TrEMBL record:
Residues 961-971 have a biased composition (Gly residues). This is SLH domain-containing protein. One of its GO terms (molecular function) is serine-type endopeptidase activity. GO terms for biological process: proteolysis. It comes from Paenibacillus selenitireducens.
Amino acid sequence: MNKHLLSRKLSLLMLALGLTLGTLPSIASASNSTYLQLPQDARSLADPSDETIISPQINTTSSNKVRVIVQLTGQPAAVGKYAAKQGIRSLAATATEPAVNAEQSSFLRKVTNQHIDLQVNYQYNTVLNGFEVTIPANEIPELAQIEGVKSIQENHIWYPIPIESSESEETGNYESSPLKQIGAIDAWKNGYTGAGLKVGVIDTGVDYTHPDIAPAYKGGYDSFYRDSDPYEEVPLTPEEDVEYGTGYEGTYHGTHVAGTIIGRFANKTSDIVQKGVAYGADLYAYKVLGRDIDRPDKSSGTSAQVIDGIERAVKDGMDVINLSLGSDSEKDVNSPDAVAINNAVLSGVVAVIANGNAGPGSSSMGSPATSQLAIAVGAVTSETKYFTGHLTPELVHNDGSVTSATYATYGNFNVMAWETAQEDFHSILGDDPHEVVYVGLGGDSDYIGKNAEGKIVLASRGSYAFIDKIAAAKAHGAKAIVIFNGNADPSNPTQADLSEYVNGRDGLYGGNLGDSFDFIPTVDLAGKEGRALARALIQNPETRLQFTFPSSYPDHLIPGDKLADFSSWGPNADANLSIKPDIAAPGVNILSTWPAYGKGKPETSYDKAYNRISGTSMATPHVAGLALLLKQAHPNWSPFDIRAALANTADGIVDDDGDRYDVYQQGAGRANVASALKTPALLQALEPITILDKNFNPQSVMNYNSSTSFGVVAPGTPQQIKNLQLKNTGNNDVTYTTRVDWYSKHDGIEAALDHETLTANAGRTSTLQLKLNVGTAAEEAFYEGQITLESSGLPTLHLPFVVYVGQEQPANGFGIQELYVTNSVVYPNRTTQSSTDLSFKLTADDTNLLEIDVVDLNDATIGYFTSQTTKDLTNERFEPGKYVVQNLNNKYYPYDEEGNPILNEKGEPTSAYLKDGIYKILVYAAQLNSKGQIVKDKNGQKIEYSGVISYRVDNSSSNTGGTGGPSGGGSSVIIPPTNPSTPAVTDAAKAVIEQGLKQIVVASKSTGTNAALTATIADNDLKTAIASASTSPAAIVVPVTSNKDANVTITFTADQIKQFTSLPSQSSLVIQVGGSAISIPASLLAKAPANNDIELAIHPAANQAAAFLSKVAGSTVIGTPVSFEANWVKDTIRTAVPVPSDTFIKRAFTLPGSIEANSAGVLFEENGIITPVASIFQKQKDNTTIVTVSRPGFSVYAAVNRAVKFDDIEASWAASHITALANKLIINGTNETTFSPKTHLTRAAFTSLLVRSLGLRSSKTTTSFTDVKSSDWYANDVAAAFASGLIQGKDSQTFAPNDNVTRQELTVILDRALQLTGVKLKPSTPSLHAYADNDKIAAYAKDSVSALSAAGIIRGDTSDDGSLFHPQAATTRETAAAALHQLLKKANLTD
């Protein structure tokens, strides 16, 4: 949802306040007896303010101390360093390390002067300009007022846990604490390892060359880049990041997740290994998250990519899928992702999903954990330990005497960090004295002139992060580092404060960083003691300090099973306030595999390819592994059975005070598979629910739930009943005693079971009823408990329940809730169910803006349905209550690339129409000031709220298929009935219809035989269609019914052409014939010669297959070539329709089989010449593939594939681009197996490459260039490029075909090509608009270099002294391939 309200311009606010949007659906309050219309003339567009952002997750009314990240406005030094190389204006001079340090020092002085109780824990100046600090939450608004503060965000603290030493030979050198905690080791003893089962990890991909993963990895798919290699993305420094220049941390998440599930403990060169919960299972990886093109320093994924990953995993036969991903802000139980997961579960796949990291707080969970049929997982801590000891400090004088008595009481310490698997500190530090080097604050610059090699470093806390201090000490060869509690000197931030007393810093720090391969032994020393030792050294320069370490380091245990502070809470966003998460598992400081990115690099070391991270993402794979163990033990168990077994036998967890965490925090408890494997019976709630199938049609299913919720029950309501079942999956009868256990007081509320004992025969089920009575005096609140079943010798079973006593759902704190659509599918071209009503509950009482947006599955906000404000922005607010938006269908008001409404010549929003598909409806509310800026509350939080629900648009006109409930009432948008016999718009036709065009079907009439048909349309039908289009751009779709081998010709008269030209210029005429279709722009029809008809022909061209095969060695033609022809006709004279080079005609044809994107290409023949052209391949659900080609012309087209394997591109940064273009037939190697990525490209070669990619042709074969002969192999391409305005030559007579194309020449030509396609560039890195050698770029190229650099199509070269563009440098083949591929993608011409 990236083009949101906040990006729009203030000027449009003033425009909108004067608009009357009379055709927009109305928003009405349902709290009144009649629909009260809100003002329609209040299109308010919020303008982003430049005020400090405070995370809404921070409770700034609390006096409790919290840890937050403070970001200052200046750019960090890494940006400045790269900016200096790139020549980026305003950044190179301001984002230097001295500038960042000066800004930070100024900030700290202001904090001190304002007496804000702030403690700096980490200080960042390289990749972030800011600090991690501890501060009372209620002082954060004051902190935000300090000039230069950009944002204040919450920080989740991760506490690394050590690797436990082996207790037996069986456990090995892997971390066993979480595995013991969930009972996995007991399961292994019984022979359950997940062997024979398949798990799909839907994530960022996986480093399948990791020794602990490689034996388990069997395959998968990359839904992000749409290829068959789901490998993690490699980190890039800004200098290495040729394509974007921002640097990239790479991806790693999926590798960590996968190791937790299937780690095979096979790494022979590491001191530790990773043993997964289900280490015998096979791994399949589905990459759905990757580098964000619009924010190239980030990783992300869309709903469409996630859904594709789920679909592929199901088709590949996964037993379990793991989704450690989600959106905390999207809470729809029927989100497209949740729908896909529900359907995966119904197909028999166990789906395990992270509940989210937005805790603490009620309703903080999000989609797709909202899936009602999946297993949502929260996170708990695991048992860990820390070490203590006592060191002896001594001052040694020049005469050899030693001062130690003064420091006799000094030296008690904690070990706060150490290297992974190196816990024998005595073997490292020994008993002998070690010389100590004092390094102030411990930054890299503090080591200048000092030798720390083999010595102990003494440093003060402050200014730099602990991990940075450790890294600096390690880099300078220190054996260990001792960090005493302290601060930077406020009067001189580059020095440590060595005062005798420092408020809050005299004792030990008390923190525990745990272990990492990047650490050396790190000691936490009391601040008062460390400062005294440092002062003594400074005051007595003739002395030296030495430390003697102890012979033992006692360890101390910290118990686990505490709820992680970041773990998201329920309830789910359904009508029953259902319990989520379902279960909890270890998720804090989990050690697992980490990518070393060794694919293609056998020398890569995986010795230290392990890391600790935290999140419900880490808890989820533990449960996925347990599901595999249970599936192995019980192959016939359904996903519901596995969920019930884990939940029924889970261990309830309590907080530090012994109070049980509530059901919306822990679900049924922390999983324990040892008990789950022993239970023969399962306790399940029988809950009939309505979910949406893959077509978004409502379906009633039975949810065999592991918990139950009564939802909202008013005091005095008649008895409520929940049905449950005891399912015996064993071979013997079982009998349990039953009871109800309440978790808290429940005055006025009683619950009882209808059986005191319950027997279930072998292989059968027995039913049980939970009866709830809520008295009239019951207080409004949540009440929770559990049904408990006990049987001697068997695990105790429990099923949690909850009820909310009240009149309506409580406010969830998000301002908008209870979203509902009357129809989950709308059919705008039918007489029934043509629209839906949207209702939502506004609980916020401080908003004056309501907006309803439409979002596609790529999570792009493409437009809005309606937007309204109160009449008086200053004094009037929308009343809380239920609101209704009537008659939503496929009509919307689109946004441009900047997120602004597209206006017509009258300054009014233009309308458009949604194509078939699934869309999200985003409800947004905010409070604006008179300037259109979002107002902040007293705590500095922006007053804005949002909610999301989804629906599907089906533009078919047939009344068969699809139901979605009753049609919406109230005033409706009237759409003229369409002839029910008119064929539906085919997928091929949909592929050529541009988004936003209103689809109007006009029936055709055919004459002829099955082999040859001639079609026409009636004048009146066309007039009716054009009248229904009104002033909206439309696609007039004319289907012609024929068999697949027919030659079809359709003719439109001169009068009909005139009617077409009355439509808006963006309109098109779409002809669909079988599996083929073509879209003719209205602008081309407007060029018709006077009194000429147009004749369009589509037919198979099987006889030309051999010609296409002969063009590309080793190729195969897929399916049958298809011919698209167009002629002007007058009397009996036919003239081929000429197409200007800037008019791209889109056509599509259908191939048999499912063909992956970027695995095949298209050739076309025109005037006897065959060349490749860019293309898009889209797989269909019926095992076919639609190919779309857009180029200026008609001709014959064939899909062709060939085997391409270049041996020299694996190390190239452009390898993926090269491979894609080679598979598309667009680019060739210098020979069959060699691409030569570093060699240069001539002007002739690049011109030919670009012309053929765009499918350009010219009627002329000669130019004015005297150095281009008509016999030259590139002559036709140069002629086409010249005629299209892509090239101009060195002068009017010289093209210099054999000269290398320079970087600035290439950029200018690409820019002209983009202009030719009509694509408007959207900057992905808008700040990258200049280079240090900008003055060397020719004047004619400056604008092109700036525009294409900002769009991410071209980047500067890097060198030792900075990043430059090198405009005169020759372009390498890899650079040209990458730039061309990016251009074709930006122009929507290729995958």
